[in-house]
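ERR on first pass: missing label on line 2. Operator R.T. fixed the label and resubmitted. Corrected input:
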Amino acid sequence: MARRGSTIKNMDFVVVIIYVVLVAFGLFNIFSTTSEPFIKNIDFSFATNYGRQAIFIGVSFVVAAIILIMDAEFFSRLSYIIYALIILLLILVLIIGSEISGAKAWIQIGSFSLQPAEFAKFATALALSKYLSANPFPKMNYKNRIITLAIIFLPVALIMLQPDAGSALVFLSFFIALFREGLSIKFVLFVFYLIAITILSLLIDKFILIGVIVGAIVLLYFFLRKQRNIIAYLSMVLVVSAICIFSVDFVYDRLLQSHQKDRIEVLLGKKTDIQGIGYNVHQSKIAIGSGGFSGKGYLNGTQTKFNFVPEQQTDFIFCTVGEEFGFIGSLFVLGLFLTLIIRIIILAERQRTAFSRIYGYCVAGILFLHVTINISMTIGLLPVIGIPLPFFSYGGSSLIAFTILLFIFVKLDTYRFDLLNNG
Amino acid sequence: MRADLFEKRKYLIIGFISIIFLIMLVKLFFIQIVNKSYKVYADNNSIKEKIIYPGRGLIYDRNGNLIVCNEAVYDLLITPNLVKKNFDTTTFCKLVNIDLSTFEELLSKSKKYSRYKPSVFISQIPKEEIASIEESLYMFDGIEIQARTVRKYPFPVGAHVFGDVGEVSESFLKNNPEYRLGDYTGLNGLEKKYENELKGVKGVKQILVNVHNVEMGSYNNGENDISALQGNNLILELDIELQAYAEKLMKHKKGSIVVIDPKTGGILTLVSAPTYNPNLLVGRERSKNYSMLVNDTVYTPLLNRALLGEYPPGSTFKMFNGLIALQNGTISQNTKFSCAGPNATPIKCTHNHESPLSIVAALRESCNPYFRLAFENYINSFASPADGLNSWAKTAHSFGLGEIYNTDLAFSRKGNIPDANFYNRIYPNQKWKSSTIRSLSIGQGEILVTPIQLANYVTVIANNGQYTDPHFVRAIISPEDTIHPFEKNVHKALVDEKHFKVIKDGMHEVVKSGTARWYGQVEGIDICGKTGTVQNAGENHALFVGFAPKDNPQIAIAVVVENSGYGSTFAVPIASLLIEYYLNREIKRHHIEEHVLNTKLIEY
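pass 2 clean. output:
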């Protein structure tokens, strides 16, 4: 395969620069959360979180460089093998994993712990891209559809067993890629409808809700009775709605742990105990809210520095941004992420292979869902779901996995002209 | 490449993502810019205000003795939410010497106040005990020490003068929002009157704390801190040694003594007996001791008889009736009335003496008929008894009788100086005349005075018709200034100066050769005085008012000893001993002192 131009020349610098800025800004913020109010000397060693994060960043850069010098074909060829290895790791972690705060999510290797779920995202993205590019939507039969769903939901199921609901939730982002590739709009609307009745069923009595749905369907029937197969469609909607409502009820009452239920109830406004369950979110909102327009200044955040915000270096790292850099800082970070995601979508669209395009959408979707869930949780728009802010939060597995995810796409993007020539 | 059917969907996707980001941005805009309450929450979280309690102002007596000072004690504060499961309750209880049920009780009380703010858990631990507690405090998260000061009285006397200091009540907090729960305030006496001078300024230190309430340094380099300022000092007119001696003499007796410096109106001594040691109402035993005192309904040691006890003045009032008749011209110093002694009607005389007699002799012999006649003549010299009595009452008020002195005295009673309206209520249609109210001529009947009024009354006589409102404080010393609050309150009595000389002569005779001659005389001091024996449901009350020296009065005194018989028996010796002590600083008449000290009228 002939190549036009070098990797460096074809590399998209917008993506790479945003990546570097996010990673560096993340490190600054992790440094700021150090509890010492008067830092005398900076210690970039394993002894401090920021020291470890700096090392993780170094490793990530090396990993990115390795990806960039590898052959892009490697990823499309080895997609299934990488996916299979990660699935094995996800099984392995359930057996030999060490349990930290109730979840068997880490494999201990020496002094480091590896979180396979983080790596499962790019592996699933690769496998999905490979499968969908070989079996595009218009030609799909039922078997293809089931395999597509299986590729997504096999890691989800394994991750749920840890259990790590937050990481599992992120896999729903693949539906953005599926939608781009031709997933039916009706199906997407139906998913939104199910999400809506799931939330409603938590808020109001399930029998009232079903009554309202039955009423609405009867009304719809009178308006649409001339359409073909309308009875079959509407009956299906009714049956699925009922199943959804009762399974929400079942999952909520039987499967969810009490702290998860509490988080949901606080978000829905059913509970207001700001010192109990809502404590984390309340403290997080205080930290961000107290930043005001321009923030308290770097290293001057009292809320994050003095541990009022829980998990402030990992899941709640955005609090430091909000407190020390204010609304300007929030705008900056959100702007960077939005630019990055849109840039990736634009790049994906210029790809000439379905594999690269689908993979691009997978990357954009994962980043989008991560950023949305993480920031929404810190500002009280979503319940507390423990997932990191990409490139920003403290943590080696997460940072390295996101770097791999992103740089595989950067690498694929450098080949866009070659495949055009061959096409 | 085949045409892509779904390429347009990228716009939907980008639009959807952008909308979600916009929603987050709007929410951020609201919590970071629109809603200001998060800043307040943040400060509440991380800035701990540490209160530095100032010492209350010190109090000195007229001779520079330090009579009310401060002593350091320590409170243990608890922040309930910081008390973790590993808190070793048993060890802690042993350390601070409380039992487990008390601990639980106190903890739930603190939780009720606030789980997140420190509140006083155990108060007023003395210096000697705090050291060992401090050493082991690191084991008990959520407990901290706070230094406070409490009052200390080097002379264990003067409880009714100083009053006491205690924690603010909830109703007090409602009216005085600048105080906080657990603050101290003066509850009585001078401590209450001068609360604003004495309390000082609380200091506030803003300290950054982390989530475990561990101090991380000062906030804003201490620029918002307020340093504590000790309260202003007071210098009293009180003579603490005289006060102590007076309390000693009043031991085992019920009654009151008020001693005034006639030149200034300053109160040298104020005793209400029975009294109590002011140190009882300080420290951890305070509430126990307080309930003991307040529940004593037999001896009522908390009652300030000097300001609240209302007694008929009896014969001590004869000087006034003499003065008013002299002023009015009803009598002159030579006017004589005859007296039939014990056979006199309608008021008999208690003594046999010369007759007829003039005012000086009448005072010496405490002749009842003389003053009855003088009084009735006085009243009858007016157009109506009502006019006469109103003029009499107006003059009595000009002597400070029936008045409340608007100085620094605690809550006082007015007594009763009856006027025409008063009798019109008792005798409708104004069916009363001078003879109806003649008991007033000998200080009996409806007239009532308090010991402080009595002392002020004799001060007016000593000063030939003028007085300064009785008060305790000579000066308030602040870092910037010294204020003398009561120097200028001079009142003039409605009796001319020239009439006082003959009255003083009479009072001098009382001590030299009259009713006070046995216990009243002190070698080298010309004492003027007058006894009174007030009829009462039980045993008579003994009264004495006097001043000395006659020509240059330096001390004016009123003594009331309840249920002790004749005025001369106890009131006179107590007064003369105090005059002797004040002017000579030593007691030579030991037999009289022993007579007083060895008499036990009550078991207290």
